[in-house]
Amino acid sequence: MILSVLSVASPGASQTTSGPPAGKAAADPSSAQASRLLARARAAHGGAAVLAIRDFTFSGEMTMATPQGEMTFASEGAFTVSGKSRMVMKMPVGEIVQVFDGSALWTRTMQGVQQMPPAMAAQARSARERDLFSVLRNFDRPGYAAAVLPPGSHSVEGKTIDSVRISRDGVGPFVTLLLDRATGLAAGKVYAGQAMIGQPGDMLEVFADLREIGGVRIPFRTVISSNGRRTAEQRLKEFKINPGVDDSVFQRPQ
Length: 254
Hints:
Elements: E1 17-18, H1 31-45, H2 48-51, E2 55-66, E3 69-80, E4 85-91, E5 94-100, E6 105-109, E7 112-115, H3 118-129, H4 132-138, E8 144-148, E9 155-156, E10 161-168, E11 172-180, E12 186-194, E13 200-213, E14 216-226, E15 229-241
Antiparallel strand pairs: 1-9, 2-3, 2-15, 3-4, 4-5, 5-6, 6-7, 8-10, 10-11, 11-12, 12-13, 13-14, 14-15
């Protein structure tokens, strides 16, 4: 849920899942049922508190599978509901900073600052749009549509899942939320994407260790898979809602 700029994929936790990626199964035409499920999910995650989110920050650590073995590093981020994001990854090879200002994407490494191609900026924008709380805030706004996939389309760790596919005008289906029928909470999401290391494919994020911060239920653990292979895990240590992120952090990094 937090890996909004960089899609990375997962090692980690006990997790079972099956089913088609977002947009590849025939959807139930009843959008009313989908809207009810999404409204229940928004309420389960905090309701009015979710709608009141303006920005948030986090810090934690990421474990990522690489050809040389697992690598764990500290990470932190700042995000706004307008779509801006800043990620800092303190890797053993040096610090990497990615900044998306809503239109342009920059990366700073040991080699300097580079503006990334428009296609990568578009990927960053898509990542922000499919963020869990972006979806829960926006699903009932004009231009959005949702449909329930057939029962059993996905499973997550033995939970009974309602799979709700979300589309947007001009984009089409861009994410499927996996909702725990017992609680209404999001158990994960599925989308087409690309791991930090690997090929484009079907991405799965599984949410765990939900904690209440400022009235919002936040997943403090996210396990990510690419094409069925677990390749990354993120664990949060701190999460702040509406800290008042200064817009200057989304300028071109120096």
